[in-house]
Specification:
Order of helices and strands: EHEHHEHHEEEEEEHHHHHHHHHHEEH
Shape: globular
Distance between the termini: 22 Å
Number of domains: 2
Structural class: alpha+beta
Largest sheet: 5 strands, antiparallel
Strand content: 5-15%
Number of helices: 16
Length: 427
């Protein structure tokens, strides 16, 4: 999944301390500069604490010169985009042999980079005045390098492969001026970027390791063969959150806990992370716990090379498959933006797919004569972030067959949600 949180001034110490700072002892690898601007600004590889501090304060990381207007009025220094691997992938990374660990780490890194490229190209924007428009509109932006930090443990010190990507809250617009980002775009594209990360990750690990995947659940899937019992054993943070939600259940929550309730439960149960505990020190304990639930070396080996070939054919790539994927997430007769179609397509790829292929296929579909929603849409400015124009599916694609398929999907989703709620109550 992809989590987005706001980082205040000085918040970079949490990420740096895990690599070289007080108490961290270098338990996590050094951060690396990421994104389109890294090469343009010749930032090199490893994130230096001084350069990151300057950047988050709104300065040029190379010269220290302030960027744009006075930053003292900007309360958000950066956005933390946290890309989290499925638990089964984290277990492969933590417990597998060296060649498997390397393949998982490389696949995760490539998936994060691909999803970040989408965020930079489509989600990030600054607001500028436009002729004939009463309010500033989102426009394309030149961003600054993002700082990526790979972490391998959860706060409960379970295996948890995830990357924090700090996107500084400043960008340069077409007018050459620097200003804070339009944060609305980050949140509007959050689910899409997360779906793209998972689609790319599935593609990478299917190709490199020959793993197969359990059925998709909201665009995510676990590796077949790891097993639910093992995933639960190494999900102590999730278990603590589930208990808190059950204890604080609200009578009105018919469809399960809301996103806000889940976030509050996460904060209530959130322990301070032990930055001195390294993976090497934790590994023996992890291996013992894994053997206790039947996840020994033999079972880990058995999940590999299950695919008939490591380069299998892609899933159904037809026009109808695109529409069905969209109908799985929203009513197909509602206007939709490009990000909705990208998310739907990425979330439907059981085998995964490269982000560039997903975007190419969606753009081909959107360029095939779809009409824009609303009579004023042709005159509206199209922009990144929340500035994407909305489209309508043509009547020829809104068939009775598609409507029936959508009803079946909704029934299946309802059944799965009922089972999940029962599991939460039973934790």
């Amino acid at each position: 999944m992809l989590l987005v949180s706001k980082v205040r001034a000085g918040g970079h110490h949490y990420y740096v301390d895990a690599t070289t700072g007080p108490g961290g002892r270098g338990t996590e690898p050094p951060g690396h500069w990421m994104g389109n601007a890294t090469r343009r600004m010749d930032m090199g590889g490893v994130v230096g604490p001084g350069a990151l501090e300057v950047l988050m304060a709104g300065g040029d990381p190379r010269t220290g010169e302030p960027l744009g207007a006075d930053r003292r009025m900007v309360s958000v220094a950066a956005f933390d985009l946290t890309f989290c691997a499925p638990k089964s992938v984290s277990l492969l990374h933590a417990l597998g042999p060296d060649e498997v660990r390397r393949a998982v780490a490389e696949g995760h890194d490539r998936a994060v980079s691909a999803a970040l490229s989408y965020v930079e190209d489509h989600a990030l924007a600054v607001r500028r005045p436009a002729p004939g428009v009463p309010r500033p509109v989102p426009v394309a932006v030149d961003t600054f390098p993002a700082a990526g930090f790979v972490h391998r443990t959860s706060r409960a010190l379970d295996p948890h492969l995830h990357s924090h990507v700090l996107v500084v809250n400043v960008g340069v617009g077409p007018d050459g001026g620097a200003s804070a980002l339009d944060g609305r775009g980050v949140y509007a594209h959050q689910a899409t970027a997360g779906a793209l990360y998972h689609a790319q990750l599935r593609h990478e690990l299917t190709s490199a390791l020959g793993v197969v995947w359990e059925p998709l659940d909201r665009g995510r899937a676990d590796v077949t063969g790891i097993g639910l019992e093992a995933r639960r054993e190494f999900s102590r943070r999730s278990a603590a959150i589930a208990v808190t939600l059950a204890e604080r259940g609200r009578p009105g929550d018919r469809d399960g806990p809301s996103h806000r309730a889940a976030t509050m439960a996460s904060l209530i149960t959130r322990p301070a992370k032990d930055l001195a505990a390294g993976v090497d020190e934790l590994l023996a304990g992890w291996q013992a716990r894994a053997r206790a639930v039947g996840l020994g070396p033999g079972r880990l080996e058995a999940v590999l090379d299950r695919a008939q070939t490591r380069f299998r054919a892609h899933d159904d790539d037809s026009e109808r498959a695109l529409v069905v994927a969209l109908a799985d997430q929203r009513s197909p007769d509602r206007p939709f933006a490009r990000r909705h179609m990208v998310r739907a397509w990425a979330s439907s790829r059981q085998l995964g797919a490269p982000v560039v292929d997903i975007e190419r296929r969606v753009d081909e579909f959107l360029g095939s004569g779809l009409s824009f929603a609303g009579s004023d849409e042709p005159s509206r400015l199209e922009g990144p972030g929340v500035g994407e124009r909305r489209r309508l599916l043509p009547e020829r694609l809104l068939s009775d067959e598609l409507a029936g398929h959508r009803r079946a999907l909704e029934g299946e989703r309802h059944r799965i949600e009922q089972q999940l709620r029962q599991r939460v109550r039973g934790v």
